[in-house]
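Reposting from the mailing list since nobody answered there.

I have sequence plus structure tokens for a pair of proteins and want to know whether others read the tokens the same way I do. The first protein:
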Amino acid sequence: MNSKHQQVKLNDGHFIPGLGFGTYTPEEVPKSKTMEATKMAIDAGFRHIDTAYSYHVEEEVGQVIQSKIADGTVKREDIFLTSKLWCTFHRPELVQPSLERSLKKLQLDYVDLYLIHYPVPIKPGEDDFPTDENGKSMLDTVDFCATWEAMEKCKDAGLAKSIGVSNFNHRQLEMILNKPGLKYKPVCNQVECHLYLNQSKLLDFCQSKDIVLVAYGALGTQRPKRWVDPSSPVLLNDPILCAMAKKHSRSSALIALRYLLQRGIVPLAQSYKEKEIRENIQVFDFHLSSEDMKVLDGLNKNFRYVPAEFLAGHPNYPFSDEY
């Protein structure tokens, strides 16, 4: 089944496919694997592709999309492509040039969705993660409401069809929503969300404001050495989840994705294996009962795989708040 059959309406009138394919690539994974996986995802029926400047695979993702347009598999308008503004480009005058740089790498005229990657600015420059002589992140002071105004200009210029945020807590979302002269509301907030961090309070808040919650780490993340504690629990091995998977004759991954989907969340799934990619798109083919959903609700531990500690010294660090 093609994921574009299930779409979620955004508050600006555009539609986002209900399941996305993530392209974050840890340093230890060759970029060629991301190209292969993205190709397999489009062939399997994924039409929502999520990437970011800081993943350093925009060129590879762009090549795959162009090759799939060239071979007639898809048209440009069939693909919903998300990219993200990195923290070193928060200063308003850097926002549009950064998006233009991403578009050049992607070989596209526009992205379907452009997100502020984190609410925390980092000192501008070519280094994504600049540090001082003590190894501390060199953070910046930029009001993200000013960054948001520059995002609105990107939408007006036709470079991004929709604009949103990522990793914002409810208080930070309110600051944008209450900003004087707000032209466009964020259409979504992309956050870490899975069975161990089900984000129920943030979800309620976003839904009350007509903001879609998009889930990264939906399957418990790829566990890149740089960002995830190797001793953290492996979500897909959870015994309750595995029992539920057995009951439904589905994979643990499918149950984890379906749980998010039924709560009105748009999950991003990622894999490098063709079998898993083809399997993940079958998430629309079955249903969990309300009893199943209650059992899965009980797995929440408010456990975050990716605490983004490199941003922790900033007043806008988003994960100190409860939600």
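The second protein, same order (residues first, tokens after):
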Amino acid sequence: MKFSLWSVIKEQWMRQPPVLKEDLAGKTVIVFGANTGIGFEASKHFAMMTPHRLILACRSQSKGQAAVDKLKAETGYSKAELWIIDLADFSSVKQFADRFERDGGRLDILVENAAIGTSNYEATKDDWDISLQVNHLSTSLLALLLLPAMIKTAEQHSTAPRLVVVSSDLHYVVKLNKNISADPDILKTLGSAKYCTKKNMEDRYQLTKLFNVFFVRALNDRIPPSTPLVVNAVNPGYCYSELRREFSGIRAALDWLMEKALAFSAEVGSRRLIWAALAHQDQPDKLRGEYSSSFKIREVSDLVLSPEGVKIQDRSWDEMIEILAKVDSRVSTTVETYLSHSIAV
């Protein structure tokens, strides 16, 4: 599928359906990036469905606590939990997973929404470009570390947990030059200081959203069909967001005009996250490995579907597993125990 600006504009102007609702009694939901924007609004929607546990995963203690207090005031839900995680730090991701492993609870819905939108290169303490680490590597690491809990939940409670990765329609506009496409260490190259020039960083956010799509499709390909776990990616649409807070000058002015003309509120955008987490309860397999936008399953970009894209997807998966297994050996255990070595067709 090719990117169409007119199609995006029409979608932004269309009347959006109300939020999907389900009874979440007894279930556990985790939302990342839950202190602001679509993450907070999605948390509010989940809270109104009264899950047994609702975990707001945030980087800041003060902002996270403010979100918990606001959620309680606006919904009456009093069981929200604040858990701290910094996706720019692999050790923080591991500590979050350790805590959940000790907790021993079920996990029914995991919404991985946290992301940053900077186009400036910044090295993390793990020596990765911060955008690539936060938006892709740590997002994937946490999903893999929590995968056993989700599969255990499916087995013990006869349910089909959902892993929702928030991507973007911007993945449609990404073009990779042949040197990068053929690089056997594509992630290491993309995350290196040498590659992250000012010019190459201009499309960093959309590039990470492309790798979110690759991750969802690669993971789904390796989850045995008999495993009742639904992994999907969702586009929240163009919303008012803090993601673009670094914009300045003409770029900021143009974005301000575009917001006035096209942007959804964060609450409207969050409805799409809820749809990805709850839609097709009678036939959950419909959403396995899929990409959704505007409350519908959509075809991914032509690049993702091309033979070249399939090769990049599989090669980047193998490289990612090698990288993350060095961060935490549980990644290898998860792959060997729960995922198929052959790719499902």
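Reply #1 (J.P.):
I read it the same way you do. The CA atoms of residues 124 and 130 lie 6 Å apart.
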